[in-house]
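User: Some background: our group keeps a shared notebook of sequences we're curious about, and every so often someone picks one and asks for a predicted structure to add to the entry. Today it's my turn. The entry only has the sequence so far, pasted here. Could you supply the structure so I can complete it?
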Amino acid sequence: MSRQCVTCGKVPIRAAHRSKAMNKTLRRQKPNLQKMMIDGKKEKVCTRCMRTMAKQTA
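Assistant: Of course. Here's the predicted structure to add to the notebook entry:
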């Protein structure tokens, strides 16, 4: 299973560490995915979508 939010489709992006000399070292910024039960299935959902879902059900 990929590192992707099932609701919004958020995926890892490429970012850079920058030193004092502004040298660039590429790295990955991963979304904050959590496992959540949706319609009886355990799905990977980002925390932003979890907050939105909590507001809609309240």
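Suggested note for the entry: Residues 47-57 form the longest helix (11 residues). The chain has a mean pLDDT of 95.
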